[in-house]
Every structure is written in C-alpha cells, then in structure tokens.
Amino acid sequence: MNTMNTAVNETGAAAGAGQERKAPGRPRNAQADEAILDAVLEMLSTGQSVAAISIEAVAAKAGVGKATIYRRWPNKEALIIDAVAAMKGTLPVPAGESVRDDLIMLVKANRSGKARRYGKATVCLLPEFLKDEQLHHMYQAVIEPRRDVMRGVLRRGIENGELRPDLDVELSLLMIQGPGMMQHMLNWNPGIPEEGFAEALIDAFLRGASA
C-alpha cells in the first residue's frame, strides 16, 4: 500500500502523531480532533474494515471538512492508528509500592474509558493486522509502551523478591493480557462480572508467580 509508506516511517511517534500535525498559525481544535477520532472508532466498532473506511466518510460522520482531517493526518492509516492510541488513553503510571496493586491497575486501565466503549474496534482491526504487516507494525508502536510498563512492574517484582526469580517476563505478559483481551473483546464467559475481574485475574497469576 503506497499511502502507508509515510506513516510507517513515523511509527515510533504514532501514538502522538496526531498531536504534532498542524498547519502553521492554525491552532488545533480539540473538539474537532475528538470528533474525528471517535468517528473512526465508531465505524470500526460497527464492523467496517480499514479498506471500507474513507476520509470522506470520516469527515461526514465527524461533521468536519476533509481538509480539517488532512491538516492533521497525512493518510487514513495514520488516522486509524491515532484513533486506536486515543482509545487506549494516556500511558498509565504504576505507584511502585505493590506488584499486585500495579498489575491490577494496568489491567483495569485497558478495560476503562474509550477502551471499554470501543472494545469492538480492536476486534475488527485484528484481521487487518494479520493481513497487513506494515499496519501491524504501526499498531505495535502504540501498544509496546504499555507492555513495557507491565514488564517494568514484573521485573521490579523479581528484583525486590515479590515474584519468583525464575519468572519468564514475556510469558507472564501473555498470561496476564490474553485472558483480559478475550473476556473484554470477545465476551467469552459473559457470566463473569466486570467488577472484580482484574483482581481475580491477577490473584490467579500471582498464585504461581509469587516468590
């Protein structure tokens, strides 16, 4: 996809790219930005593929002109990745006092706000990531900083003796993030209440991971 080359070169700044693009002398409109990003997430949440989404359709749904979008994003792919970043929210900061508390906070952060409202958007994007390696790399630039936060919590737990010294950090990430993704996005085991889910998940993990 030729239009993706420019966006891929900026993957390291994908999460914040939308905040940096503006025409000189033309102040950003936060309401317009939010309306545009929400329009993309709404379209993805209703099952539209990346190929089916157009700048024209996004502009119409957000109530803005196409020029407003192009002043902020160079192409559709960069817009979609920024919408996903907005859905994820700001990068969470662990308190650093308890591994259990920090892990629970991180799990809850991925299940609240826009992430909860637009959970189906990620489900709709998964096939796109599997088909398009470049789009997948752009998505990785959004989620890896969050995974690094959790890695830091796990490594701190190993160093201070809260967690087993032989704990596999990467495998632990899969063990923690996988169930939450399946429960939240695919609604597996719908009888499990949202209240207390993060605590139950982390406590189950810690029964095998604690020192």
TrEMBL record:
**The keyword Ribonucleoprotein is assigned to this record:** no
Ranges for the HTH tetR-type domain? 30-91
Q: Which domain of life is it from?
A: Bacteria
Q: Which GO terms describe its molecular function?
A: DNA-binding transcription factor activity; transcription cis-regulatory region binding
Respond yes or no to whether keyword Nucleus is given for this record. Answer: no
Output the InterPro entries linked to this UniProt entry.
Answer: DNA-bd_HTH_TetR-type_CS (IPR023772), Homeodomain-like_sf (IPR009057), HTH-type_TetR-like_transc_reg (IPR050109), HTH_TetR (IPR001647), Tet_transcr_reg_TetR-rel_C_sf (IPR036271), TetR_C (IPR011075)
Q: Where is this region: Disordered?
A: 1-29
Location of the DNA-binding region in this protein: 54-73
UniProt keywords (A-Z) are:
DNA-binding, Transcription, Transcription regulation
Recorded hits in PANTHER family, A to Z, give: HTH-TYPE TRANSCRIPTIONAL REGULATOR RUTR (PTHR30055), TETR-FAMILY TRANSCRIPTIONAL REGULATOR (PTHR30055:SF148)
What protein name does the entry list?
HTH tetR-type domain-containing protein
Source organism phylogeny: Bacteria, Bacillati, Actinomycetota, Actinomycetes, Micromonosporales
